[in-house]
Amino acid sequence: MATGTIRYWAAAKDAAGTAEEPFEATTLEELLAGATAGREKLARVVRMSSFLVDGDPVGKRAHETVVLAEGATVEVLPPFAGG
């Protein structure tokens, strides 16, 4: 199981109530399940978000296939508005 940091941006930061927090997880799916457990507002934002793992976009890859390395940084990027 890897440990690392999950960073929340914009609406995800508001929903989480923090800019970042530590995690212990093996896959992105496991991380997101743990991070959103009991946090319905955050879960709603996460469902609409895209993710970066150590700066690399996850894209359409299944979250259970994204294995997290020790010390990984996962960024939660909700849809942004603006121009």
Helix content: 25-40%
Largest sheet: 5 strands, mixed
**How much of the sequence is in beta strands?**
25-35%
Mean pLDDT: 96
Coarse morphology? globular
Radius of gyration: 12 Å
Q: How many strands appear in the DSSP assignment?
A: 5
Q: Could you give the order of strands across the largest sheet?
A: 2-1-5-3-4
Q: Helix segment count?
A: 3
Distance N to C terminus: 40 Å
Helix/strand-derived category reads alpha+beta
- Runs in which pLDDT lies below 50 for 5 or more consecutive residues are none
List SSEs in N-to-C order: EHEHHEEE
Explained architecture:
By secondary structure, the chain is α+β, with helices and mostly antiparallel strands. Helix content is 29%, strand content 30%. It is built from 3 helices and 5 strands, in the order E-H-E-H-H-E-E-E. The chain has a 5-stranded mixed β-sheet with strand order 2-1-5-3-4. The protein is globular. The model has no long low-confidence stretch (mean pLDDT 96).
What would you say about this model in short?
The chain has 83 residues and is of the alpha+beta class. The chain has helices at residues 11-16, 28-36, 40-48, and strands at residues 2-8, 20-25, 50-53, 56-57, 72-77. The longest helix is centred in the middle third of the chain and has 9 residues, at 28-36.
